[in-house]
Amino acid sequence: MYGFLKRYLPGPLADVLMALWYVLLILAVLYCASEPQAEFRYLML
Amino acid sequence: MHFVSLVWFAWLAGTVATYWIVPHTWRDLWLIFISLAFVVVHAPESALVLVIFTLLTFWLGKKGGRHCGYRIALAAGAILGVLIYYKVTVRASPEDLVREGLIPMGLSYYSFRCFHYLLERFRGTLPSHTFREFLSYLFFLPTLVVGPIHRFKPFLDDHHTKRWRSDTLSEGIERILYGYVKVAVLANFLFSTQMVRFIRSIDPQATTRILYLEMIRGAMNLYLQFSGFSDIAIGFALLLGYRVMENFHNPYGQRNIAGFWRSWHMSLTSWCRDYVYLPMIGLTRNPYVANITTFLVIGLWHEVSVRFVVWALYHATGVIIWREFQTLKRQLSLPRFPPGILATVAHGASIVLTFHFVGFGFTIARQPTLAAVFESFRMLFLFWW
User: Fold this and answer.
1) Do B196 and B267 fall into the same domain?
2) Is the ipTM of this complex over 0.85?
3) Which of A35, B56, B288, B298 is deepest in the core (most CB within 10 A)?
């Protein structure tokens, strides 16, 4: 994704967009972290 | 213990941080110690089983070569016996065992790693190595609990060449982040909480629609959970300087069932190809028998039950029909679609068809009894009856 942004956008803008993308993902994970965890049968055995 | 939890994240971060701090010569021992501590804390019985498996596999497979086949068969038989015992016991009373902490965490994964090691020892293909290196392979925290079932030789190569590299480190962090997004955001939030809420809001009389949506939800949830855990494991391994094998490669974007099985849980399917399918082909010269045996092993690896035997036969039949269709196409010299709209539609339709075939297969695996499987299929396909 970073390579894609670098190809089509000026370098600093690509860096900022990439940083924002990661921040967005981290916030989304933190927001959903309190959701009940789905049963995952492969996990234990 | 859940992967989306502070506890797991603390283990991950603590392992990576301390791993690069300790002196180079002590790193592998430190990782073995952390992995053992993790298993002791979260599943004590698994620690005992893992230690016994490790000793048994190494000492009985130590000499290697075809002249030591009986020793290797003894070790493989013992491991298989323990694996079947737990698979059957857990199937009988899973809740009790989870509550009492008696389920050997990651048993299916490290058993298959042991089998791989023993079989390669028998073939004499493994490079010379020490017990400490073998311990590092089995007590490797990133892949201990949910795989991938990585192989010994590539692991050993990384073990000798690993070093701190900032690009590998950033790749690992990114991979872990995407893994968490798959598990927490897409699987837990979108395909579990939100989609379940939506399905519950549908009129309960519309059973066919509910079952169909539940099939899609289950298939997506399973893929996102499992590939998310694999991403976290692969990223974790990258942070320690190891590149373990990939487990998924766009399985729901495949155009046929054979393509799906080449891209779904690849570490298990490639294991079964190498140690079940190819030996069976050599033994019987019959691809049908080899196919059915391979899928039975895959099915029983998941769970020792009738429904997983049915699930395995369902997929084996799918793959056999697809292979026969390919042969027929070649014999009849059927022309391919010329590039254009028709080819694009056919491409999309084959992806949708493959996804539905796989999704209906997961419906078999999710139902508690065979009667419930038939009832689900009746409601899905013969809903007017």
Assistant:
1) no
2) yes
3) B298
| CB-based burial label for B47 (10 Å; 0-12, 13-18, 19+) | buried
Give B307-361 pLDDT, tens digit per residue: 899 999 999 999 999 999 999 988 988 877 788 888 899 999 999 999 999 999 9
Q: Is B185 close to A32, i.e. CB distance below 8 A?
A: yes
Helix (H) or strand (E) holding A37: none
Cα gap B9→B374, rounded to integer Å: 42
Residues B205 and B157 in one domain: no
Asked if the structure places residue B324 within a domain, the reply is yes
Q: Are B300 and B321 in contact (CB under 8 A)?
A: no
Domain extent for B271: 251-381
Residues of B in contact with A29 (CB under 8 A): 4, 177, 180-181, 184-185
Same domain, B232 and B325: no
| Interface of chain B toward chain A, CB-CB under 8 angstroms | 2-4, 43, 86-87, 90, 98, 103-108, 145-146, 177-178, 180-181, 184-185, 187-189, 192-193, 221, 225-226, 229, 302-303
**Domain tally for chain B?**
3
In a domain, B107, yes or no: yes
What's the distance, CA B221 to chain centroid?
15
What are the pLDDT digits (tens) for B13-36? Answer: 999 999 999 999 999 999 999 999
Does residue B246 lie in a domain region? Answer: no
Given B236, B267, B293, the domain boundary residue is B236
